[in-house]
Write a structure and sequence with these properties.
Layout (H helix, E strand, L loop, with lengths): L2 H9 L5 E6 L3 E2 L4 E9 L5 E13 L5 E15 L4 E9 L13 E8 L7 E8 L3 H12 L2 E10 L10 E9 L10 E9 L2 E9 L5 E9 L3 H13 L6
Parallel strand pairs: 2-8
Antiparallel strand pairs: 1-3, 3-6, 4-5, 4-7, 7-8, 9-10, 10-11, 11-12, 12-13
Helix pairs in contact: 2-3
Organism: Ferrimonas balearica (strain DSM 9799 / CCM 4581 / KCTC 23876 / PAT)
Protein name: SpoOM family protein
Pfam family, one: Spo0M
């Protein structure tokens, strides 16, 4: 490379760019993202110290968290005017939050290029519920509860739940709800080997706060409505 070529590369003129091509636009927690990372060289040769692929989620109004990461390659010489295609597979954690309300997730693909502006590509991804998660949401709605918000609750590093955060779904009784013991309800879930552990925090009309759990297997969606009704109608609430 000539000295002028080095100058152009360091200044970011005619530099490489990166683009990520996804196989689809929606994924479920625990699913593997299958993508292609395309590198388009500029007018000069450039050394790429690393290619990084990561998934991030919004966990607050101004906070975000990296929930998955991998390094595709290191120490690549990208020849001028060339195109390099790299396949990538990255598994989403089981606790990946569902896209809802202000909660969203995205992919970052970045290049580490010495003495240059590092190119990045950002792609939003839509995270949809698993079949069991959707069964929970459907059962709550069928009980006459109205969804009124969703938020992320960060957890301490030593939490027994073994997760960095919980996604909490907020509900209130609708006009057709028969759950007279519930004035408000917060539902979160913890992925298990063959299902979910539901974490239910609810308040009674008299102001009593209660915390209960319910194990939901992947194959018991048809019984879930009745189980939730019995649990939330109980007058012997666990503190």
């Amino acid at each position: 490379m000539t000295w002028m070529g080095r100058l152009l590369s360091s200044a970011g003129i005619g530099a490489a760019r990166v683009d990520t091509l996804l196989g689809k636009d929606h994924y479920q927690p625990g699913e593997t993202i299958d993508a292609k990372v395309m590198l388009y060289a500029g007018r000069v040769d450039q050394r790429i110290d690393g290619i990084h692929f990561s998934v991030h989620s919004q966990i607050g109004r101004k906070e975000q968290a990296e929930i998955a990461h991998c390094t595709l390659a290191e120490g690549i010489l990208l020849k001028a005017h060339s195109v390099l295609e790299l396949p990538v597979k990255l598994a989403l954690p089981e606790f990946t939050p569902i896209t809802a309300g202000p909660i969203e997730s995205w992919l970052n693909t970045g290049l580490d290029i010495p003495k240059a502006i590092d190119p990045t590509d950002t792609d939003k991804i839509h995270i949809i519920p698993t079949a069991t998660q959707q069964a929970v949401l459907d059962a709550l709605e069928s009980l006459g509860l109205v969804h009124c918000g969703v938020e992320i609750e960060p957890l301490p590093a030593q939490s027994r739940l073994g997760m960095p955060f919980l996604q909490r779904w907020q509900y209130r009784p609708g006009p057709d709800c028969s759950l007279t013991a519930v004035a408000s309800l917060s539902v979160a879930w913890r992925p298990q080997l063959a299902g979910l552990e539901l974490l239910l925090d609810h308040q009674s009309p008299s102001g009593q706060d209660s915390n209960q759990t319910l194990m939901v297997r992947d194959d018991q969606g048809s019984k879930l409505k009745a189980q939730l009704r019995n649990l939330l109608s109980s007058q012997e609430l666990d503190d």
